[in-house]
Amino acid sequence: MKDSLDWQKETFLEEMDSPEEARELLQVFELSSESLLSEIEKALAEGNLPLVREKAHALKGACATIFFERARLLAYDLEKAADLETAKEHFAQLQKMLKEFQKVIANF
Description:
Elements: H1 9-15, H2 19-45, H3 49-65, H4 69-79, H5 84-106
Helix pairs in contact: 2-3, 2-5, 3-4, 4-5
């Protein structure tokens, strides 16, 4: 079953050895995604589209690791953005979604 954010929680939990491992991985995801978002935001401000793509690729992988499909797709769109304006639009959507997901992590 998927939630409104399209996080496949049940699949994620099935892949974990224990609830503690799941919590630890979510904490790592939270920290790494915050760092990557910050780096992407800076790269966008500097007009560095290649760096945006590199960091978006890393974020896409992190989202896939925890079965967060909708965010993975947004990170993919950001990675493949043809120009800075499109990248900024995808970034705003992704940033908003990950902020919402932080609430899920906090209540996990």
